[in-house]
Design a protein that fits this description.
single chain
Amino acid sequence: MLLAIEIIGVLCMVTIIFVAIWGFIIAKYAYSQIKYQNYLLEKLTQNIYLLVTKNKSLTEIIGDTTNNINENQKTDGEI
């Protein structure tokens, strides 16, 4: 009877160690994937910001140009 309890105890310890090791491996893999996902999201955010600022500056340039054209047309019509 004592031998059976020892065998069951050893099997439980081996099972728990096996689960703990695989749990650590899976947690490490998940952590690296989360880090990579955050890296990609940061790059995406930077690129979107650059596109928005570039688009904003382009619309300001176009807006200034149209304003100058409109002002020139007004002054040409008044003369």
